[in-house]
Specification:
The protein is an alpha/beta fold. It has 2 domains: 105 residues, Cobalt-precorrin-4 Transmethylase, domain 1; 118 residues, 2-Layer Sandwich (Methyltransferase, Cobalt-precorrin-4 Transmethylase, Domain 2). It is 25% helix and 19% strand. It is built from 7 helices and 10 strands. A hairpin with a 7-residue loop joins strand 8 and strand 9. It is globular. 35% of the residues are buried.
Length: 252
């Protein structure tokens, strides 16, 4: 059996209870060493085989999964954040399906949630934005033409940009080709929830300059949008005049 597990954004205590239990019971752990906090490996039982997938190819990872399955062992494939976002899990699952190897998927707290927590921010403020775009800048790996950053920026919605801090100059240029202005609020969160977490607040117009000044070159999220501003309307959910399934409001 193979368990895909989301490790969470960084802080070891942000892994789910289910994920921690699976780690404790695993015979083998293959973890994404480039981003997963190695402190989580402390949950492994004595004798557990541990592999760092940052040093492996897909074929090598699959080889270990098959070896463990052949001898009736349980493997945890530990991915950073939540595996559904930029986790490259589909290709692994398809290979396991072809081999008839059973697997399941345990979600984790994504770093984009960790970034919001670090900023004490709400991505979906009433009358400001009810849409969150999660994306990345085209680099060594392309993105579909319809999903270029400049095109997505045309919506002016809350945007969370992964895997792009090293291309921050191009990110800023693309954002300014959309609906954002030089004054649109932005922030960069380096290693959200880790002890070395760093936050840089800026605007779209000063994004690249601020990132370079802070010396941030990797492992950071860029968030953009007016949700970082001060103007919004209160939620109707808790408005005394608003009726819900659970209480009557003054408008009833």
């Amino acid at each position: 059996m193979v368990h895909f597990v989301g490790a969470g954004p960084g802080a070891p205590d942000l892994i789910t209870q289910r994920g921690a239990a699976l780690l404790q019971g695993a015979d083998c752990i293959i973890y994404a060493g480039s981003l997963v906090n190695p402190a989580l490996l402390g949950l492994a039982k004595p004798g557990c085989a541990i592999y760092n997938s940052a040093e492996m190819t897909l074929e090598q990872v699959l080889g270990v999964l098959r070896q463990m399955e052949a001898v009736g062992k349980t493997t945890v494939r530990l991915h950073t954040g939540d595996p559904c976002l930029f986790g490259a899990i589909r290709e692994q699952m398809d290979a396991l399906d072809a081999d008839g190897i059973a697997y399941d998927d345990t979600p984790g707290v994504s770093s984009f949630c960790g970034a919001a927590a670090a900023l004490n921010a709400e991505y979906t403020l009433p009358t400001v934005s009810q849409t969150v775009i999660i994306t990345r800048m085209e680099g060594r790996t392309p993105v579909p033409e319809r999903e270029t950053l400049a095109r997505l920026a045309s919506h002016g919605a809350t945007m969370v940009i992964f895997l792009s801090i090293g291309l921050v100059d191009k990110v800023q240029e693309a954002l300014l080709h959309g609906a954002y202005t030089p004054g649109t609020p932005a922030a960069v969160v380096y290693k959200a929830t880790w002890p070395e977490e760093k936050i840089v607040r800026c605007s779209v117009g000063t994004l690249a300059e601020s990132v370079h000044a802070a010396g941030i070159t990797k492992t950071a999220l860029i968030v953009v949008g007016d949700f970082l501003g001060t103007r919004y309307e209160r939620s109707r959910l808790y408005d005394p005049a608003f009726t819900t399934e659970f209480r009557k409001g003054a408008d009833a």
